[in-house]
Amino acid sequence: MYVFGIGLHVLAAIFFAVHAVRTQQPLYWLFILFLFPGLGSVVYGVAVWLPEMRSHRGVRRAGAKVKLLLDPGRELREATEANELSPSVGNQLRLAEALLEAGRPGEAVAHYQLALQGLYAGDPDIQSRLAKALLESGRAADARDLLDRVIAEHPKFKSPPRT
């Protein structure tokens, strides 16, 4: 069992040493890793490897999914708080998107309509988002009329793909 433990420490040190060489880390990491295989691996993992892993897109995406699983109402709660603090167009849109994701399209329609005032009254992107909310809330005829009006006013507009 003792040999297995030492082998595990050495394997971890080799893994991190290969990472250090590939990512061109300073050479002192190799000395730390091989002079202190267990402690050196822990220090390298915490100081270099973990922070680097956080910057990878796949890790960020997995982290976002875990956050969503642990607290599914977080975005809606944060969007509501931001909109109450400052009811700007950006916050109205964020809240409307969160409401739409939460399955409350009727409430999202109201926030999209609030965003379509003033400078943004004729914004085709917001109008297309409003049409989606109208459609999901069971108002297909209103959505169709709105989209026909957007097409007539902005014939070259293409709504961006949403994920």
List keywords for this structure.
163 residues, mainly alpha, Serine Threonine Protein Phosphatase 5, Tetratricopeptide repeat, 2 domains, 76% helix, 0% strand
The profile of the biggest β sheet is:
none
Please report which band the strand proportion falls in: under 5%, 5-15%, 15-25%, 25-35%, 35-45% or over 45%.
under 5%
CATH top level assignment of the largest domain: Mainly Alpha
Q: What is the CATH architecture annotation of the largest domain?
A: Alpha Horseshoe
> What separation lies between the terminal Cα atoms?
50 Å
Number of strands: 0
Provide the low-confidence segments as ranges.
Answer: none
CATH topology term of the largest domain? Serine Threonine Protein Phosphatase 5, Tetratricopeptide repeat
Q: What is the arithmetic mean of pLDDT?
A: 86
Q: Which radius of gyration do the C-alpha atoms yield?
A: 26 Å
Along the chain, the helix and strand elements come as HHHHHHHHH
Structural class: mainly alpha
* Tally of separate helices: 9
Shape: elongated
The fourth-level CATH homologous superfamily of the largest domain is Tetratricopeptide repeat domain
